[in-house]
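Comment thread on ticket #2218

A.B. wrote:
> Attaching the input chain for the structure job we discussed in standup.
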Amino acid sequence: MRLLDPGLSLTLRPMRYPVFFEMYRAAIKNTWTVEELDFATDLADLHGKLTIADKHLVQRLVAFFATGDSIVSNNLVLNLYRHINAPEARMYLSRQLYEEALHVQFYLTLLDTYVPDPEERERAFQAVENIASIRRKADFCFKWMGTIQSVQALDTKAQRREFLLNLICFAACIEGLFFFAAFAYVYFLRSRGLLHGLAAGTNWVFRDESAHMAFAFKVVDTVRAEEPDLFDAELQARVLAMLEEAISCEVQFAEDLLSGGVAGLSAKEMRAYLEFVADQRLAMLGMPRHYNGKNPFPFMDLQDVQELANFFERRVSAYQVGVTGEVGFDSAF
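C.D. wrote:
> Ran it. Output below, let me know if you need it in another format.
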């Protein structure tokens, strides 16, 4: 049985795809809670250090966060889990769903902390309907990920290609582009010594999202090995068109966020960063780079470097909980 074959595989012995089980185990080690985060210094920054333009950026950013991970969670439940037919892969997706819920809780706590006024907070949660730049990003998600929602089984090659486009949109564009752009704004503010609570939580989310992408691209690689004829020129052209549309959406969002004139950051630089990241996603898909640009943000060169913190005062995001026990992947029942 191949990974996208219709049916319901329940066989964990022998394990067909042990790499997915190892990803599940790694995700368990990366356990954190929202209660560990401290936003005390963020409140001081919001009231005393941020300019009006900075505050507009933060308000738009948290408004996007309010619904972004919910869109991802719905796609996991309604589309991905149904069609990735290996129990060890579904174990990882179950863990990912928990992590997406944790991100939603993080952003909910962030909104409650940053936006104490109930009416303003309600407007933030309704941003997907009321803010044009956020609405466009949501429409993009629904357009590319909604095509297989009514498909019960991937019986045809056309359906499997649509599924791959859904998965690639989820991994390369939403988690791999929209959220990475959001992280760039957070780390830009951190580079100015601002909003360390937000940055600390983002370190954990960044690590989760990177693992989610790795899993999705491993699924793509596995399907490519099992069914190479699915990856034709038309599919690759549609992937490139998808990325270009995602960049256009995110540039509109950048123009909105930065409309007040944020010192040290421009929509032009954000476009260059998005094109740089898009080339990374193309390379992860085994496709040629398209933009051939450079990263314009030096502060993002350190994005994988964990925050400097006294381990006994704050649990750094490099910390992992222990997972014990050995698993034999080729054992029979």
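A.B. wrote:
> Thanks. Noting for the ticket: Residues 304-314, 327-333 have pLDDT under 50 and may be disordered.
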